[in-house]
Amino acid sequence: MVHVGRHVMRVFVGLTLAAGSWMGLAVSGSLSAAQIDCGSVAPTSATATPRATPASIAEVAFPKGGETLTVFAAASLTDAFDEFATTLENANAGLEIVIQTGGSQTLVTQLREGAEADVLATANNPTMATAVEAGLISGEPVHFTGNRLVIVAPPANPAGIASLDDLANDDVLLVVANSSVPAGAYAREVLCVYGDSEEAAEGFVDAIDGNIVSEEEDVRNVLAKVQLGEADAGIVYASDAVAAELGGAPVAVIEFPACLPLTARYPIAAVEGGNIDLTNAFIAAILSSEGQAVLAKYGFG
């Protein structure tokens, strides 16, 4: 996909998905049965990053002179980063911030292939660690926010999904992100942990595995398929459900049991070769109380 800038890219994806729904076509993901291999699921919280100390946004100074900052951000950050970028542009004459969003692993692949960016924000630590190991990152990543997983269903909830156990019911159409996407990795970790617990019915993971009808390239495509009624349920972040509500297309939200490892940690870092002054200013701004307030508005924290 060609990323054409903030405001446009996600609209284009949504229209494409809608068109696919009207024509009865699968526009992304895999329709073959997924394989959840609990033996190969690694904890996604590995390679922790330190939490940076926030400052006031009034203390953040962006360079003068009308420069452009390019931010590669995990798909779940689309709405929050879009709003905050507009706030920063309005407060700093001549500043242009281009937000390009997608699956975290896709963004790292694009950087490896020569795409240019100043900032990288991913939805988990292992993906950021991959970027660090590839020499794509300048300095140390810092943890700037968190998220948690939820189950979503269409507003009418035709399959009657009321709990995690219901995802294993016969004939449930479940959509998840693929295993290389942080949301997909988190989902598999949660499903495997629950499947190994005394609360889960025998064969829970196998039943879930048989109900997965599509694995998507990023978490917003999971949300879109649920909104379009192409699935009975999906596993997304709480922030995606909040964005759907704020965007006027709400979904039913079903919480996971609180005992499960639901928390996602988001690191952010400067990209090697980028504009370090603009990057440092943006990271400081997103860590400020004002930046954190925008993230909280969209369900992060």
Overview of this protein structure:
This protein has 301 residues and is α/β, with parallel strands linked by helices. It folds into two domains: 117 residues, Periplasmic binding protein-like II (D-Maltodextrin-Binding Protein, domain 2, 3-Layer(aba) Sandwich); 117 residues, D-Maltodextrin-Binding Protein, domain 2 (3-Layer(aba) Sandwich), CATH 3.40.190.10. Helices cover 36% and strands 20% of the residues. Strands 1, 2, 3, 4, 5, 6, 7, 8 and 9 form a nine-stranded mixed β-sheet that branches. Strand 1, helix 2 and strand 2 form a beta-alpha-beta unit. Helix 2 packs antiparallel against helix 10 and helix 3 packs parallel to helix 4. The longest helix has 15 residues. It is globular and about 60 Å long. 47% of the residues are buried.
Features:
D-Maltodextrin-Binding Protein, domain 2, 9-stranded mixed β-sheet, 2 domains, disordered N terminus, alpha/beta, about 300 residues, globular
Q: In brief, what are we looking at here?
A:
With 301 residues, this protein is of the alpha/beta class. It is built from 10 helices and 9 strands. Mean pLDDT is 86; it is low at 1-28.
CATH topology of the largest domain: D-Maltodextrin-Binding Protein, domain 2
* Number of DSSP strand runs: 9
Q: What helical percentage do the residues reach?
A: 25-40%
Main sheet record: 9 strands, mixed
Alpha-beta classification: alpha/beta
Order of helices and strands: HEHEHEHEEHHEHEHEEHH
Quaternary structure: single chain
The mean pLDDT is 86
What is the assigned CATH homologous superfamily of the largest domain? Periplasmic binding protein-like II
Beta-strand percentage range: 15-25%
Task: Give the number of domains.
Answer: 2
End-to-end separation in angstroms reads 30 Å
CATH architecture of the largest domain: 3-Layer(aba) Sandwich
Radius of gyration: 19 Å
State the low-pLDDT regions, or none. 1-28
Number of contiguous helices: 10
